[in-house]
Amino acid sequence: MYKQTFLKQTLLVSTLAVVVVPSLIVLFTTNHILYNVYSINPTNPTNEIIKGSISSISNDVNSATTWIVTGVYKIENVKTTPTFNSTFYMIKTDGTSEHKHSIYDFKLNADPIVNTSNNSTIFNGTSTVTMKEGPVKDVSTQITLLGNSVISILLEPTKVNNHFGSGPIYGNQHLICIEVPNYCK
Prior knowledge:
This protein is mainly beta. It has 1 helix and 11 strands. The chain starts with 11 loop residues before the first strand and ends in a 6-residue tail after the last helix.
């Protein structure tokens, strides 16, 4: 997997339950992981689904901006067993070589890392990524929700022939066609 600069942290919320037995009061506490790094907004009115746009650039081996990356994503079951799906276009900055990729079949392989100091949650797992030669399975994937409005998607570069560069693909937690539907008619 990737070197992680974040310490693994889990934010726990305790729920107190009181059970009364004759002559005895028993207190139980249970812990629930809190995922609160999402934006409640017109695009995402609940805390169980996060969807938004992919809007990123990708550099070539010389660090020159070469690709524009645009599309959409959706995370469902955020608080239980997150699923992640995304489809996006890659187009060279000169307007050529347009093609499409999808990321799907995300499987979480560790507890999410919640960092309250920078309001982020990291989901580490594997996914399938469509490539020109066909789908590539079991690609190490790190999905990070940042600051209530940003998402970064990091795919293991060597598994996808460095096609997306060495850095993450970025997006946000908004879809303008939902928030301002008149723009998309």
